[in-house]
Structures are given as structure tokens and as C-alpha cells.
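It is worth pausing here to work through a concrete case rather than discussing structure prediction in the abstract. The textbook approach is simple: state the sequence, then state the predicted structure, then interpret. We follow exactly that order.
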Amino acid sequence: MKILKSSEMRKLDEKTIKDISIPSLTLMENAARGVISVMLKEGLVDRNKKVLIVAGKGNNGGDGLAIARNLHLMGIYVGYMLAYGEVSSRDASLQLDVLRKLGVREERDLGSIKDYDVVIDAIYGTGFKPPPDERGSEIIRAINTLAKKVVAVDVPSGLSSDSGEIFEPSVSAHLTVTFQFLKLCHCLYPALKKCGDVAVVDISIPSYLAEGIERELILPEGLTIPKREADVYKNKMGHVLILGGSEGKTGAVIMGAKASTETGSGLVTVGIPEDINPIIESNLVEEMSLPLPEGRFLSSSALEVIEDLEKKFSAIAVGMGMDVYEDGYELIKGLLSFEEKPILLDADALNNIYRYGSPDVLAEREGVTVITPHVGEMARLTGLPSDYIVNNLTGVASEFSTKWRCYIVLKSATTVVATPSGKVYVSNWGTPAMAKGGSGDVLSGILVSLLGRGMDTEEALKFGVTLHGFAGRCAESLKHTETLRATDIIKCISHAYKRLEEISALMRDRYTYDYPLIFMQSRYSC
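Step two, the predicted structure:
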């Protein structure tokens, strides 16, 4: 599912109207019927509910007025309010003229909002740039205060479609229905909180027009799910090496190792400082431990041991619970000289690069390098403020990935996968319950497992973040949002595998979406 910026959506609108000769009024009619279709499916509109449309001056307002006409002709009580007392676009003027001829009720008093069961926000569209003017702000505040249920047309008014940032005032919608493609505000927190549930409807803009957009929401049915051949054996399923751990932080590598085993690795070895080997070994069953010199921390002297064994391993992950110290950076730099193996850098591996080196060390490597920073680690690597990164996850991840020639899995409430070629994938399949220590270590274990069994890097990362998210959702359903632990996610990896296989088969075998609905994330369950 493509994710567009407002400028990209505008170009696609123009191509559809000018090059393909689908009239703008037809697109408006399709948009109106799409919104109504979703509202009917969600039980937000029927003959017992009163619906008010608040329409702006432009084509977003025209969409709202077209919705009003269709609802009126369906026998539903509907009223409309012109946010600015007039409309300015040709298509919106036509819609308003029809409404007036039909005698549909026009409301002028903001207090009347409370008399309606549902308010449809059609004030500003995708091209709006915050903040709203004084009149727009007044209406938005009234909607947020007085409305019982709010449905936003395309984008909740007051938000920018190009950012995850919340601008105030902005409409707090229960449902947002957008057209043909998602926009960034529909995918990135915190703006997504303002959107409520998000549905995408088909309005007849050809999908192939967006083929050049390299920004997508990850959908379960589009994933490559690894399968075992009948004649497989353990070494063929990958032997991963997970390096990390220090005094007080042994749990990170243990969770990563167990997640790798649960994800399907044939063999898992945990390389840890020799002084903490007894702790690690007592917590591993299927996995093996590899005590490394010297003492309480991993040291660059371990490189000699690892190099001797390197041919045994199909992928390496390093950094979980490792700690930050100068010789730790020398170890990271040495590992990156092993060109043939995919290497995943997490947690303190990245902190060591920040403290004692620079991202140059990533760009110098020819082999596959994956980094998995959370927002704080990304802020240290880039020097950008954390708030800026949260609001611009896709842009920050893409720029870093292409500049430093590495794959990046940028972790926040939304997870973004970016590739050195400029592709960006967004995952919203996790849950707030996963905001616990250790969740990132589990993700690293999942990802290195998939890389170790030889999956295409891009496909491994897309599947891995989705598997992780679905496992978290499964664990939450079995426990409680507040009580979920990272180890619960590991236990639910198996269920997540099964659920993703079921969804993939279902979508492959039959077309389950009713026209004109393309996508609604709430339809998926773990």
C-alpha cells in the first residue's frame, strides 16, 4: 500500500484528470460514495442518525457536500455547514447548488454541532499547510468539544498530510477515510492518534500511476514468508552468532538468542564475555554459548576467535547489553571487516559508533549491514532532535540509509525499514504494550535469524518487523497491555507465524474487500 505526500497526490490527481480523462467531478462522486460506504460498514450512519457535514471552501469541502447530497437521497437526516460561508472551487460550487435545490438544511450556528450524531469534517484537504486561520481554529475546537462522533474526509483538518506531527488545533477523528493511497499522517505517530481508524477507498485513480513512489505500508499479504524444504537440515537453516552482554545486562542477549531459535534458526551461538558465561549458559537450552576474552566486557581481542570460527556463521548480530567503551568500538569496526556475512548492529553497537567513531564505518562496508536504532540512538547518530525524528521517521530513515549505505530499522511507535536504494517501508503492526525493555532485543533476534537463513535482506526485514508486531499483539491479547513482557513476545512468535500464513492464504485465494474499500487496518487481527 503506497504512502504519498501531498505534492505526489496532487500530481496523480492531475494525471488522472488530464491524461486519462476521468473528470474531477467523477473523482469527487467516487470519494463521496467511498466515505459513505465505509460509514455504513462501520455502523456510523443509518436512518436513525443525524449527520452534519462541515465543508471548507475547496474540493475537500466539495467532497463533503457530495456526501451530504448522497445521504439526503438515501433518506438520512443530514445538514451542512459552510466553514467560511462560501465555496471557491468549481466542483464544490456545483455540489452546493444541487444541495440548495434539494432543500438540504444549512446550519450556521456552531452550537448546532451537538444536535447531530455524526459530524463529517471536510474543511481542509491534503494540500493544507498548518496552522488553520482564526475561523478554521474556531470550528475545529467546536467540533472537538461538541461532536459525538467525527469522520474526517481525507485528512483530519488542521494536520499536515506530510508529517507525523500533531498541529493544534486539529480535528480528533474517530475514523478517517482517505482516497486511493495513504498519506504520511495516516501512518506516523503521533498524528495517527488524531486519525482514529483509517480506511482507504478506491476513487478510480489508477494504481500504476504511483509505481515510482518508493514509500509503502507493509501489508501481511504482501510478505515473503519463509518455508522449509522437505530435505532441510539444521545448518541449512542458518547458524547465527549473537554478540553482547556485560555485567547486569545478560538478559538482552538471552532474549535475542531465544527469539532467533523461535524464529527458525538451525543453530544459535551466543558470544559473551568469559566472566559472565556461567550466567548465560544457565539460561540457555537449545542455544550454545561462546566465552570470549577478556573478562567482564567483549573486547577486540575476541576478533581472533571469531575470525577463526567465522565460516560457521551465516549472520552476526552485535550490541545487545554490550555497554559502551573504546575497545568496544574497535570490536565493532573489526566485525564490519567481515564482508561476506550480514551484520546487524543494535543498541550499544550503535552507541559505540556514536561515542568513538562515526557512521563512515558503515558506508565503508561492502557487505549487508543492518542497523536497528530506536529514536534516542538515532538522535545520537544524526545529531537531530528526537521530536524531529519522531515526526519525520520516513524521511530521516531514508536519508541516513542512502547516505551511509546501510539498511535501517528505525524503531518507534511506528517502525520504518529503509534501504540503501531509497525504498521505505512502514510497519504499524505493533502495540503500545511492546514499549518495554527487551522488545528491541527480541526484534534483533528475529531479524538476524531471517538474515542467517539466506532470505533477501529487504524481504527479511519487512517480514521480521511484521512478525515481531503480530507476536506482540498476540501476547497482548493473552495477557494485558500493562503486563506484557518481552519474553511473552518470544512465546507468541509461533502464533504470529501461523496468523501471517493464514492472512496470506486468505488474500491470495479470494478477494475479500468490498468495493470501494481498499484497506482498513482494523480488519486484521492477530
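Step three, interpretation. The longest strand covers residues 267-273. Residues 71 and 78 are 7 Å apart (CA to CA).
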